[in-house]
Amino acid sequence: MLEIQNLHVFYGGIHALHGISLNVPDEKIIALLGANGAGKSTTLRCIMGIVKPAEGSILLNGESLLGYKSFEVVKKGVAMVPEGRRVFTNLTVYENLSLGAYARKEQDKVRQDIEAVYHLFPRLQERAFQPAGTLSGGEQQMLALGRALMSKPTLLMIDEPSLGLSPLLSQTVLKRLKDLNRDTGQTILLIEQNARAALSIADYAYIMEVGSIRLEGAAADLAKDDQVRQTYLGIH
Amino acid sequence: MKISRNTLLTLGALIIFAGFLYVAQNMFNTYILRIINLCAIYSIFAITFNLIYGYTGQFSLGHAGFAAVGAYVAALLTMSAQQKEANFFLTPIVPALATMQWPFLFAIIAAGLLAALVGSLIAWPALRLRGDYLAIATLGFSEIIRVLLVNMQPVTNGALGLKGIPPYTNLFWSWGCVVITLFVIKRLTNTSYGRALRAIRDDEVAAEALGVQLARHKLMAFAVSAFFVGVAGALMANLISTIDPKVFLFFLTYQIVGITVMGGMGSLTGSTIAACLYTIFLEVLRPIESPFTIGNLHVPGVPGMRMVLFSILLLIVILFYRHGLMGTREFSWDRLFEFFRGKKKASPLTNSEGEQE
Questions:
Q1: Residue B354: inside a domain, yes or no?
Q2: Using one digit for the tens of pLDDT, what is the confidence trace for B59-115?
Q3: Total H helices, total E strands in chain A
Q4: Homologous superfamily of A1-77+154-236 in CATH?
Q5: CA B64: distance to chain centroid?
Q6: Cα(B4)–Cα(B7) distance, integer angstroms
Q7: Helices (H), chain B
Q8: Which domain holds residue B195?
Q9: ipTM over the 0.90 cut-off
Q10: How confident is the model at residue A41 (pLDDT cuts 50, 70, 90)?
């Protein structure tokens, strides 16, 4: 589905990405792990057309995404749940969800899809006409997810869903992602600092360190790998 | 059933209001008529500012400039050839404009369109900026327009201004324009387009990530806003019948911002009500600028004293009543009925368009 080859990014003089390559196959959950400043978010920004890479290619189903603006990338079927949720706090839950479908043409199906999101996250239905700012952190994360799903993405990218959530809540959110992937075959690119949680739901994972990919492998293997366990999972 | 009731009420209120305007136009003296007309003009200013700032979150301070464009266009298009000749005694007017005289309606529309054009041209570069920087840039543009007016002697008669503009503006024109402005902008904000504007206000990055084209939406909001500001400027020129660049100082924008804040950011009807209150309030307070005596304390007349009071009022609103008169709510019949029934809980989905008065 998504193929990134040899991606280089510079922020001014700083070489932020040193030629990373990764592959997101159809109907899989791929995790991109790493500490602060590893380049995970920069990779996402490149895909969304917010940052221009100096070199490399990004292909979505064989078609290059380079040179497109964010709204065009969204129209091509990529949705992003931004870091820190970023729901529209003064708009109601319902309005937030409708905005998720903004880039779509068939507006008549939107109502039906909102129902589907309510089905996935029943809490959102209870709070449909409440300003999103009054929701708890976990509910806001669910709303951000639901909002991204409203665009019917072929590729769903999620930046740090567990940020600022209690361990229990982040477990719930990640489990929902797994359910979504299993039930609808949604392809997901998951960005996380919480490696243990991410590895528990992902099929394949890439581990980044200061701008390059350090390790990659099936999630189950990485979770067992000694080096990974010591460095990223804190198990000795 | 319920919708038709509200629509009927709105229509009824409009008819009653039109009747009131008719009576007022024929019975009140020019002083009172002037005040009611100014209420309408300030309402349009505040409603349009609300679209840019209250809904879209773009802190633009260019209103005085857009109003100036509208006012000059309408003035030049409605003045007779003789009037123009009498006005332009230092430098002759450019020949193309000398004999041009249009009906008021077309002059208003032209004023709006040119203001919208200027608004879009300004918005194009300025909307890359955010927050305070946008405010500074638009404020600068507004001043540039004013300086141009002073210096384009053959077109604008420079600092001498234009005098003897035909006083076409009456209550029907001014309040008619308010109703149209309210209707158009309310409609606009109820569509998915309006929702996108509010999304931009809340979080630009997230809005962009959902596929909202920031530049296009902001530009549209600017253009629509500038159009109606231009219309209000035209009404103003043909109401006070004398304009010069000094009418469109930053002070005008400042008043508009103040009115909008008092009415509530994001409430169009709030803007209208606040504009009326403000205009009337300024007139009622006129005596405090003349000399008066309290006990044995003699206060000499201080011009501008009303504005001091206005500033204090604005401070009080900002400190203690931050949401303004209406907050983000709109006047609606449902709310009114609930108020009279003494119910506290407002239904969460009151979206019916409301007319004030």
A1: no
A2: 999 999 999 999 999 999 999 988 888 888 888 888 888 888 899 999 999 999 999
A3: 10, 10
A4: P-loop containing nucleotide triphosphate hydrolases (3.40.50.300)
A5: 10
A6: 5
A7: 2-27, 30-49, 63-78, 81-87, 95-98, 104-126, 131-151, 153-156, 171-190, 192-202, 204-209, 214-240, 250-263, 268-284, 305-320, 333-341
A8: 2-286+304-341
A9: no
A10: confident
Which residues of chain B lie closer than 8 angstroms to A79, CB-CB?
A: 209-210
Question: For A85-108, what is each residue's pLDDT tens digit?
Answer: 889 998 999 999 999 888 887 777
Whether chain B has a CB inside 8 Å of the CB on A80: the answer is: yes
Angle at B198 between CA B193 and CA B200, to 5 degrees: 95
CB B220 within 8 A of CB B124: no
Q: How far is it, in rounded angstroms, from Cα B260 to Cα B271?
A: 5
Cβ distance B202 to A91 less than 8 Å, yes or no, reads yes
Instruction: For chain B, positions 157-196, list CB contacts with chain A under 8 A.
Output: 192, 195-196
Tell me whether residue B294 is in a domain: no
Is any Cβ of chain B less than 8 angstroms from the Cβ of A86? yes
**Residue B71 maps to a domain:** yes
Within 8 A of B199 by CB-CB distance, chain A residues are 88, 91, 99
Query: Which CATH number is B169's domain given?
Result: 1.10.3470
| Domain ranges, ordered by start, for chain A | 1-77+154-236, 84-152
Distance of CA B227 to the CA centre of its chain: 11
Residue pairs spanning A and B at CB distance below 8 A: 70
Q: How many domains does chain B have?
A: 1
SS (H, E, C) A13-62: CEEEEEEEEEEECCCCEEEEECCCCCCHHHHHHHHCCCCCCCEEEEEECC
Q: Does A87 lie at the interface with B, CB-CB under 8 angstroms?
A: yes
**Cβ neighbours of A158 in B, within 8 Å:** none
Closest CA to A175 of A150, A141, A125, A132: A141
Q: Is the Cβ–Cβ distance between A27 and A185 less than 8 Å?
A: yes
B 251-280 residues inside an 8 A Cβ radius of A: none
Please tell me which of the candidates A86, A92, A102 has its beta carbon nearest to residue B211: A102
Is B291 among the domain residues?
no
Q: Which residue of A has its CA nearest to B214?
A: A71
Beta bridge partners of A217: A205
What is the pTM (predicted TM-score) of this model?
Answer: 0.85
Q: Is A125 on the interface with B (CB under 8 A)?
A: no
B347 Cβ contact partners less than 8 Å away, ≥ 6 residues apart: B334, B338
